[in-house]
Amino acid sequence: MPEPSGPQPLRGIGVSRGVAGGPLMWVGAVPTLPPPAPVTDPSAEADRAVAALAEVVVELGRRADRAREQTVADVLRAQAMMADDPVLADTVREEVAAGRDAPHAIDTAFATYRTAFEAAGGYLAERVADLDDLRDRAVAVCLGLPMPGVPAPGHPYVLAARDLAPADTVDLDPEQVVALVTEVGGPTSHTAILARALGLPAVVGVAGLRELTEGDPVLVDGGSGLVEIGPDAAALAARRSVAATTAAGATGSGPGRTSDGHPVALLANVGSAREVPGGDDAEGVGLFRTELLFLDRTREPDVDEQAAAYGKVFARMDGRRVVIRTLDAGADKPLPFLRQPEEPNPALGVRGLRVARRQPAVLRTQLAAIARAAADTGADVWVMAPMVATRAEAADFAEAVRAAGLPKAGVMIEVPAAALRAGQLLEVVDFLSIGTNDLSQYTFAADRQCADLAELLDPWQPALLQLIAGAAAAGRSAGKPVGVCGEAAADPLLAPVLAGLGVTSLSMSGPALSWVRAALAEHTFADCERLAKLALDADDARHARALAGNA
Amino acid sequence: MPTRTVTVGSASGLHARPAALFVAAATAQPVRVTIRVGDKRPVPANSMLSVLSLGAKRGTEVVIEAEGEGAEAALDTLADLLVRDLDAEEQADA
Prior knowledge:
The structure holds two protein chains of two kinds.
Chain A: E1 10-11, E2 13-16, E3 19-26, H1 42-66, H2 70-83, H3 86-97, H4 102-120, H5 122-126, H6 128-142, E4 157-161, E5 177-182, H7 190-198, E6 202-204, E7 217-221, E8 226-229, H8 233-250, E9 265-270, E10 284-289, H9 303-316, E11 321-325, H10 355-358, H11 360-377, E12 380-385, H12 391-403, E13 408-413, H13 416-420, H14 422-426, E14 431-435, H15 436-443, H16 462-478, E15 482-485, H17 494-501, E16 505-508, H18 513-521, H19 525-537, H20 541-550
Parallel strand pairs in A: 3-4, 4-5, 5-6, 9-10, 9-16, 10-11, 11-12, 12-13, 13-14, 14-15, 15-16
Antiparallel strand pairs in A: 1-8, 2-6, 3-7, 7-8
Helix pairs in contact in A: 1-2, 1-3, 1-4, 1-6, 3-4, 4-6, 9-11, 17-19, 19-20
Chain B: E1 3-7, H1 16-27, E2 33-37, E3 43-44, H2 48-53, E4 61-66, H3 71-83, H4 86-93
Helix pairs in contact in B: 1-3
């Protein structure tokens, strides 16, 4: 049969399985100001500038209407009010009257406020980024460019970018974005992590992507790494059926185990009841983050409110295990009601369990609420603390948990000190959960936000795997569970390695469960142990991944 | 000119949600209202950027001013909004 004629497919690295197609749309780049242009009709030019601001207001309002989180909607509405400011519009008109073209008039008008906000410090200084975003959006409209950030055309599309930054993806709508493709990036890039978390097919490192035009129909295969251009309906249907077969093979449910029956519990990471996977896809919740309830609150939610929120998640798990983490906040994740002073080095500051040193009542209230919700729902509730470094901290926490009437206390392993002393920690707690993102950050002294250091934060780094192995071995000696929650647990290639290191559970975002379950079922436990040894002995992360992938 | 001196009651100050509510209410008034902190320059109360720039915190005294028909009523409405803790009311709503 002759091949259908059409452009050659583009090739990249498939990082999140599945197949999806749609028109390609680019993430809007931040516009650069063109050289100043002479203004011939100041009145029309001023209208153009003010109309651009109005379009930004409309666009932000549209996004606010669609936002699922009330907090996000409030932030977008507040930003829209800044763009809608009558004084700003007057300033823009004055700047045009003084001879500036529309983009420069907008830039100058915002610059005044920018300086004032920066000089004020504190809350206002943090709003400078909002001003810059508004300016960029209005300038883009003036120049006839798409607004910066993720498009929201109101229909499904394939999102294309050079690489996706965390900021691009805050309000990415999985109902509109059907697949992700990027020019750069590897299996651990932000795009890959995000795609797996959202269950979207993704291909990264696609050479030639830039030559595609906005609106080109493309078909993205996150398994093979192919991006086909202009697929006709028949090809699309055929590919979908292949994908459906593959997906069916991977979406078996039931407990996680290796092909010879060694159990590795598959658990879900959730932040609210909405994220709890349906059916029996997850054996329980391995990480219930409680921060969501506290965000943007200027007063602490009381026991009743907290108990109601926790109870919703517990009830959805029908008696299965729920590992709930006490408030992970602090200088690096500021919560207004804690009123913490600024710290020179927030990642190394009073965060996680350390907040209880200054404000023990917050932890006590939270534990009381958890205990009440557990009693009301009959769920199997385990409680763990973030950011524990010493046995004394773990012992104090366990005592507080038991004093609240809760049966199971555990701690997160997020700093090397805790990993190295896992055996001592297990003398005072019932279980450990390894948070690989923070553990990488502290092990390699590499900030999680620092793109230049991304390779140090690769969960395949042998030093990180060695710390995980040590903690898992301590668990085995003590006969107590040691799980991994965090991005590493969602990587289907890494899951058998973690199982082989002795980890007893893997906790991840819901959509990743089926792939990890399938990956475990492809190996015997002896295979897993062999892969783990290869990865531990590797020279670096790249080498570890290659060895495990080809073994 | 009719004025009111009011102490800001919102926990987060005249920022974020309290500022948005105040500016929206000022915009809805039939008269032009200004707001200032101490003897600094008064700014239009319907300008979000200007109101934010005041940097008013909880406990900051602000002066609102308006003239014309309905000025007294407008100032009463806005003063009432400023003294309340709008952050706490957000909690009550949630």
